[in-house]
Design brief:
The chain is of the alpha/beta class. It has 9 helices and 10 strands. The longest helix has 24 residues.
């Protein structure tokens, strides 16, 4: 079994791989095996990889499974202690893996972690989406260390020490394989691979997915005592945000995207009832188990 498997999911991203894969190979080869899982690309990705990066292991999927299921299908073919899911547009630097490996090795209670993500366009500032890990506010909205609303912080070493976070970015996520499979992998109903890079900020489809998927995640995971409170506030706050997008920012696309996301969540919420029951049952079992240990 391998220690760490770095897995980059690719779909028609030949140029992205040419640009960023060299850094991954250079700074990871002594600690991890690098895989590229190809989601049935129609460009020259496979030929390019075989010619220019023969040291990379290829997983060739028979069709485009999308982002989440593409990873699920690929990781089934890998035996490793840790999976590291890495976007194809990530450039890594020296010593990027070691702190994460050492931390997971010495903290068996931790399931996953991420590195700091800095912007490729401003290397002294955090990357907008991933930053330094994230949390949820009392109304269920996600936010990052390193970014508050539209303000992105400069990296002055303020997040250089490990910290507990509620969620980690899928752009560079290291997770124990056993924990990945224990929760059933990624939920393929929520995420889609759009192309060789991530959706740009301000794209209406990204707004739609962010709102719909966030509501779905809250429905699946929030304990009963919090769900009603949060969902009532979210109804009001989501529509307030939508009207702000329309009236103040003149952004019709994002306004419609939020409205569509609310409708889409209402339509498919019933499809996640079984998931919610399973998650809530596991939460109760964990609490009872911890209580027994305390006694």
């Amino acid at each position: 079994m391998e220690k760490v498997a770095i897995v980059i999911l690719n779909w028609n991203g030949s140029e992205m791989l040419r640009k960023y894969l060299p850094s991954v190979i250079q700074y990871s080869r002594e600690e991890a095996t690098v895989y590229v899982a190809d989601n049935a690309s129609s460009d020259d990705s496979l030929e390019m990889l075989r010619e220019h990066f023969p040291e990379v292991k290829l997983i060739v999927l028979e069709k485009n499974w999308g982002f989440a299921e593409g990873y699920n299908q690929s990781l089934k073919q890998i035996e490793a202690e840790y999976f590291l899911l890495l976007n194809s547009d990530i450039e890594v630097t020296h010593h990027w893996l070691t702190p994460m490996i050492e931390y997971l090795d010495s903290h068996q209670e931790v399931a996953a972690c991420q590195p700091k993500l800095l912007s490729i366009f401003d290397r002294d500032s955090f990357e907008y989406a991933g930053a330094s890990g994230g949390f949820l506010d009392r109304f269920g909205y996600p936010f990052c260390r390193g970014r508050i609303f539209e303000t992105v912080e400069s990296d002055n070493g303020q997040y250089d020490t490990p910290a507990d976070i509620l969620w980690a970015t899928g752009a560079a996520l290291m997770i124990r394989a056993k924990d990945y499979w224990q929760v059933g992998g990624l939920d393929a109903r929520l995420a889609y691979h759009v192309g060789g890079g991530t959706l740009p900020k301000g794209n209406p489809m990204k707004t739609f997915l962010n709102f719909r998927n966030n509501l779905t995640m809250l429905y699946k995971c929030l304990p009963d005592e919090d769900l009603t409170y949060v969902m009532r506030w979210r109804w009001a706050l989501d529509y307030l945000a939508a009207w702000e997008m329309l009236l103040l920012k003149r952004n019709v696309g994002d306004f419609l995207a939020v409205c569509r996301a609310r409708r889409a969540f209402r339509r498919w919420r019933k499809d996640f009832e079984a998931d919610r029951q399973t998650i809530q049952a596991s939460r109760v079992a964990k609490v009872l188990c911890e209580g027994t240990e305390d006694v």
